[in-house]
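Ops channel
N.P.: pipeline sanity check, posting one input/output pair.
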């Protein structure tokens, strides 16, 4: 990232506020003009009062006149300056805040449009993304203010003071002109020196933020293993590196700041000596008042340049943070792919032909998968953990695209489908479904934002959450995040009832539930499954056994396929899993215990 590129990227965000920039610039130019008034007034005052001091005594009325004029000019100038400062700060700050808002919203919109693979790439972990966005928005918006609002008036102010110095006396002007480049050179050297450490600061900030997010997300694991001290130590190490780096930045900054003050003071001393010398030798136009005048003008030359350091720092930060930020904002090829095909009806016949898939980290999860999933039927994917079952569901939902091979839905390649349209027709229930901050009703409504209250109650009833919700003090208005895992799962199912899609993917929907909740949810799912194309991944025998077709997977390959009875007879992974499940259920003993008293309750 260089300065030109940075400005090019920022420009579209400043464009809507260009008239504010113009207004602020006009105001600040006026401000820099009247900033020179003090020096001129002081010069005139010293000389005028000096002229009054004659041995015969002076005229009080003349002195009073001088003092009144000075007071009026200086106070008037201050009032005007205060008004200008207020307007300038207000416009500048308003612009910074607006640009910051636009940048934040732009990045949120972009992130929402990215494909899932983007979030799996290393460096795009939640905490890191968050830090890059926060720091990017912060530093870019303050750069906008520094560059578009502060920079030009600073230069103008310095230039104006310099011109006045030359107008007053050529030698004095030359002395100032000689000091200024030294001052700027030191400022540039400082910025260069700090650059590497500032890049490190960005890295450490991201690490800190990611570390914290990861602690918050895994609090129960940390506590259950009593690993607080290990986590604390990890953070401590990052903090220590961060603060060491920070101290280095500060130490170097202070050293350079000291050097700059020294250069400035040497300049002031040179100007005093030179002017005093010119006064003493009776150089034309040189009076005592000129000493003050020149010193003040010189301060007007160096003061803006001191501020230049702040702009330099802000620009350097922006160059560092902008790269990470615009990598997120303008990530090439990360936008979710979408076709345009929107059929009037989706039947749900799915075919996978020679599908291979590799995750962004290089794990090859699927090898040459061939499957045929029939419309209106229940197809189960069976296999040990890590066999690739969830990956298939991810591909079918178009979260990822296959490396090779094709996936056809009703005979048309999934790539050709309008992605949003496709997902409108697919329901997905996972082992753990995300419940958003908000009420039960709001969470169910996520399935269909324009649903009526009746529809929501109906969906809640079908998902067996309605009666339970009514028992809570606030009914459907209770906070959903405070519910148990089973209740949250029912909310996810109620969402699906509202959505009512023709294709349903169930990825271990009851894996984390107890037997009673499992039975209730199975009943809800059985109701929703009717007439739909269903793919179910489950370790629960009862759910697999109900399916019309089973595919067994091992290490990313399809091993067997067929209906449950046929597959069991043939032996293989399915038989192994079924036998193991029966043994783990202790089915012999169970049958004995249940004995004659067990009666099947109708679902
Ligand atoms: P299953 O659902 O059968 O338990 P998965 O489809 O989740 O299996 O995983 C299949 C393989 O892909 C595993 O080797 C797993 O480690 C890998 N995998 C799953 N998710 C990711 C991911 N987000 N990034 C990288 N590899 C992954």
């Amino acid at each position: 990232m260089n300065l030109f590129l940075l400005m090019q990227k920022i420009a579209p965000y400043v464009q809507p506020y260009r008239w504010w920039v113009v207004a602020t610039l006009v105001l600040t130019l006026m401000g820099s003009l009247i900033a020179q008034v003090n020096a001129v007034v002081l010069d005139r005052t010293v000389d005028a009062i000096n002229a009054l001091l004659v041995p015969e005594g002076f005229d009080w009325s003349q002195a009073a006149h001088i003092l009144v004029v000075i007071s009026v000019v200086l106070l008037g100038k201050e009032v005007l300056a205060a008004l200008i400062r207020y307007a300038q700060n207000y416009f500048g700050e308003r612009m910074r805040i607006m640009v910051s808002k636009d940048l934040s919203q732009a990045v949120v919109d972009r992130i929402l449009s990215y494909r899932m693979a983007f979030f799996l790439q290393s460096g795009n972990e939640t905490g890191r993304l968050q830090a890059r966005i926060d720091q990017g928005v912060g530093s870019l918006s303050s750069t906008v203010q520094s560059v578009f609002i502060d920079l030009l008036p600073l230069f103008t102010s310095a230039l104006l003071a310099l011109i006045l110095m030359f107008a007053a006396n050529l030698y004095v002007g030359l002395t100032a002109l000689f000091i200024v480049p030294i001052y700027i050179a030191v400022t540039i050297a400082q910025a260069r020196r700090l650059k590497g450490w500032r890049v490190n600061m960005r890295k450490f900030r991201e690490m800190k933020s990611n570390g914290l997010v990861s602690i918050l997300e895994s609090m129960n694991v940390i506590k259950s293993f009593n690993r607080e001290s290990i986590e604390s130590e990890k953070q401590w190490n990052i903090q220590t590196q961060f603060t060491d780096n920070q101290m280095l930045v500060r130490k170097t900054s202070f050293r350079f700041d000291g050097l700059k003050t020294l250069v400035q003071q040497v300049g002031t001393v040179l100007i005093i000596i030179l002017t005093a010398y010119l006064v003493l030798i009776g150089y034309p136009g040189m009076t005592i008042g000129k000493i003050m005048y020149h010193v003040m003008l010189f301060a007007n030359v160096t003061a803006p340049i001191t501020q230049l350091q702040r702009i330099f720092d802000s620009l350097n930060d922006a160059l560092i943070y902008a790269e990470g930020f615009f990598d997120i904002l303008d990530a090439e090829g990360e936008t979710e792919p979408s076709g345009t095909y929107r059929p009037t009806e989706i039947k749900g016949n799915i075919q996978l032909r020679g599908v291979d898939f590799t995750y962004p980290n290089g794990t090859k999860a699927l090898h040459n998968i061939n499957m045929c999933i029939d419309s209106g039927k229940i197809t189960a994917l069976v296999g040990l953990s890590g066999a690739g079952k969830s990956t298939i569901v991810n591909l079918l939902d178009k979260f990822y695209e296959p490396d090779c091979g094709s996936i056809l839905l009703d005979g048309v390649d999934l790539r050709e489908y309008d992605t949003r349209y496709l997902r409108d027709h697919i329901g997905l229930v996972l082992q753990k479904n995300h419940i958003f901050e908000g009420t039960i009703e709001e969470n169910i409504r996520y399935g269909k934002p324009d649903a009526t209250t009746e529809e929501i109650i109906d969906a809640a009833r079908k998902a067996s959450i309605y009666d339970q919700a009514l028992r809570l003090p606030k009914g459907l208005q209770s906070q959903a995040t405070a519910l148990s895992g089973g209740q949250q799962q029912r909310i996810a199912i109620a969402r699906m009832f509202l959505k009512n899609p023709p294709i349903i993917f169930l990825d271990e929907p009851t894996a984390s539930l107890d037997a009673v909740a499992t039975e209730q949810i199975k009943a809800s799912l059985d109701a929703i499954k009717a007439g739909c194309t269903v793919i179910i991944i489950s370790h629960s025998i009862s759910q697999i056994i109900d399916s019309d077709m089973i595919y067994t997977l091992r290490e990313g390959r399809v091993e067997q396929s067929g209906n449950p009875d046929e597959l069991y007879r043939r032996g293989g992974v399915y038989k192994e899993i079924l036998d193991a499940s029966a043994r783990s259920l202790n089915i012999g003993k169970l049958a004995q215990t249940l004995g004659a008293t067990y009666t099947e309750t109708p679902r």
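N.P.: looks fine end to end. The chain has 21 helices and ten strands.
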